[in-house]
Amino acid sequence: MENFNVLDKFDNDKLIDVVKNYKRYGYDDDLRGYAIKLLKERGWNEEDLKRFGYLENPDYDEALIQYKAYCRNSLIAVSVLVLSLCTLVLVYLVFVFMAYRNVVKFYQALGREEEAIFSFDLFWHVLLFFYQKDKMKEELKGMR
Hints:
Elements: H1 12-25, H2 29-41, H3 46-51, H4 58-110, H5 113-118, H6 125-142
Helix pairs in contact: 1-2
């Protein structure tokens, strides 16, 4: 307890602050206990400290709980987002491949296999979807 001797010079208000906010300051239980011991020597008892709300800081404790919950929930949210995006990319690629097969078979049915390769691009599929759809619709209208 010799490293706690600096507390001997503190007035009661500073000691109460140490007791109440020791978690916020990053102090350990031993230092807090020494501060309580000093206050007892100066005429305070634990019932008085508790009655006046000097033993604990419930606002800080609640804020700490909310901070930890925020960190946990944010990590879960980001993880779910990443996993969802990965899953969506895989699903997207499966359906793009299926759509590509449909385009190839469509142009094979028309007897023009070279257009299937040229008219379909995996990465531009989203942008080309409406163009390709309209083009294929027009081809169908012209088919005999």
